[in-house]
């Protein structure tokens, strides 16, 4: 009993001493930091005797910091884990692009009945209805799909494949006119090589014939590529990826002119006949080549900025196809001729040529990380092709009338063999915006 009373008195005395003496500093973090080395030493001394003091690796504490062991077990550990880089990615994009305007000669005109040759170029009352320079191809929609993966965690080697297309879009002129007085005159101008002068083929002329005409210009672009990829730089939020592989591009375009005439019954020789004339000019371009490129991307929080540059070098197979057809429906029956108006025996057929070509591409994309695996993107791309052939360049307006069906001089070729087939080179570009989603894992 006396022992217990003395212990209680001793505890009270110690508490008074603690609160009223300089030893109250024991309660401060300052002394704790001073005592930390002593505590570590004491803990080390308590190890089994079989353990050598040389095996102990006590790390000194820097004021204001915690030890690594404490960080590993601290209740303040961050709940956000550092995730490994994505090993697989798949993206789909909607494309809103523009392509280079088409250069097309004058294919359709109107004129004045008071002119000597209504509708012929150079006449006072002649107006151009289609062609005569650059024809606007307008914007067009498409899509691009990309997939890739890394073979290793260090991203030393991977593969990426991509395919894109721009849907076919047509530029069209569709006109009709009657044979009534005051109706629209429709003509197809050309240069008569027999006279060296401007001339015209009549589709619709009041008192002579009524007619309809449709001029259609279409184009379609698509391409694919397969690239090996490797990380060139990784750090400070900036990644550089090298690309090397194969590229394929396909550009298909055509110009069709389809006119239908109903000849007045009072016209000599062909009165009452229905005449259909079809001209088709098609071009097909196929590019095959190897390419090198680099892609850089910078990340800041959920936002990212990506820049891309590629250069492909290879060969372009250029193909031109020209076909014509004339169909005459009369009381005697149906008669066909393997020639149109601009597509005649001297230029009809299939013509090919191989040319070297360069295909550079540049792009920039802004992305926002919606979730850990899903990113939204908005980008811009510019694609250039150094050598293609286009249908407007294959049209020759210099005609020998002896080849034109139903011409007054139609028959065996006499004089110059015109028109001629043309496979001409020109440059081409496509550019536009993209809006997409990318899934990575």
Describe the structure.
This protein is mainly beta and 441 residues long. It folds into 2 domains: 2-73, no CATH class; 88-440, OMPT-like (Lipocalin), CATH 2.40.128.90. Helix content is 9%, strand content 54%. It contains 3 helices and 18 strands. It is elongated, with a radius of gyration of 41 Å. The protein starts with a helix and ends with a strand. Residues 1-82 have low confidence and may be disordered.
Architecture blueprint of SSEs:
Elements: H1 2-19, H2 29-45, H3 68-73, E1 88-99, E2 102-104, E3 108-110, E4 127-130, E5 133-135, E6 139-150, E7 158-177, E8 186-192, E9 197-204, E10 209-235, E11 238-263, E12 274-300, E13 303-330, E14 333-337, E15 349-369, E16 374-388, E17 398-399, E18 426-440
Parallel strand pairs: 8-17
Antiparallel strand pairs: 1-6, 1-18, 2-5, 3-4, 6-7, 7-10, 8-9, 10-11, 11-12, 12-13, 13-14, 13-15, 15-16, 16-18
